[in-house]
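tool_call predict_complex ligand=alpha-D-galactopyranose
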Amino acid sequence: MSRLAKIVSGIMAGAVLILIVAILIVNRSDPNEPAQSDIPSLAVEYADFFPIGAAIEPSQTNGLKAGLLKKHVNWLVAENVMKPDSIHPAEETFNWSNADKIVAFAKENGMEIRYHTLVWHSQVGAWFFKDSEGKPMVDETDPVRQKANKKLLLERLDTHVRTIVDRYKNDIKSWDVVNEVIEPADPDGMRASEWYKIAGIDYIATAFQAAREAGGPDIKLYINDYGTDDPRKRDLLYDLVKKLLDQGVPIDGVGHQTHIDVYGPTVESIIESMRKFAELGLDNIVTELDMSIYSWNDRSDYGTVIPEEILAQQAKRYGELFQAFRDHREILSGVVFWGIADDHTWLNGFPVKRTNAPLLFDKQYQAKPAFWSVVDPSVKTD
Ligand code: GLA
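tool_result ok
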């Protein structure tokens, strides 16, 4: 190689090296840094009102997602790992490790935790509902055996609730005891789940009583449901809660899931429901907030580019909602989002697989217009 060729190849090698270093610098990401460090923290902005929470999976306790959570929320709920089938998959098996990860992450970062959910008709092991011979309890027709099955189911439930509450009572103060027990389309407005078919409403009373006895007076016990703004469903829930309270069942509050969309329901109907339950002396929490960009029953898909006017409409509605939440903080003690950023939301797969964007941060963890109207709902976006 001539001297000139050596010099040229030396310069080129140097240039390639510089380019590689530059690319590494530009792409470097500190896994503990939030995507945007120069924006306000939601939890700090809401410190005078109520805690702000998010549902998470254990895998999100590391990396960029963890950074986003640490900056913006002071309350966590497990998206799945504290549900019955995860934590108690078989009669003799409790799986604590995933739930423990979320509890540890919350404690390390000074966050509170909610428990979701001790009882549900979905994501629950089939073993609960098998009789002593392994047959489905719901198929039993003999009244004597039906009675025995009910007793066995309520004993299993009692053990389930006491074991879990006992383990986490010092770390978790807010508990979803039962989830989605009302179904207006079912005969008497009670969801015709296996729980209900086998035990009637006694399963609800048993779950609350066991939780209170195991956790003592300091833990707060909630009945959680979706569509609580709908007057028919709200009133069925109200009547049930009133009846249970009259029987002495220890219910502290109502969890309003609040899976809404950019078109409805009205903010007023959401608040009206909270007012009704507050009249019974109960607390209210928004437990699973997200706002789909499609109307209910719409199966279409915006694909990768969401129209700006839809994101603006979402921002406007989020602003109205949070203004109302602020105005009613005496009857609302917290707001939990069902996720934190649009890269991870059940609505990307339900009711069909498509692009949805229901949260305050986009897929790149950047604050959306909705974030800014939640930070300051007094700024009019239209
Ligand atoms: C319901 C449940 C949640 C979650 C959402 C959607 O609202 O309460 O646990 O499963 O559905 O994923």
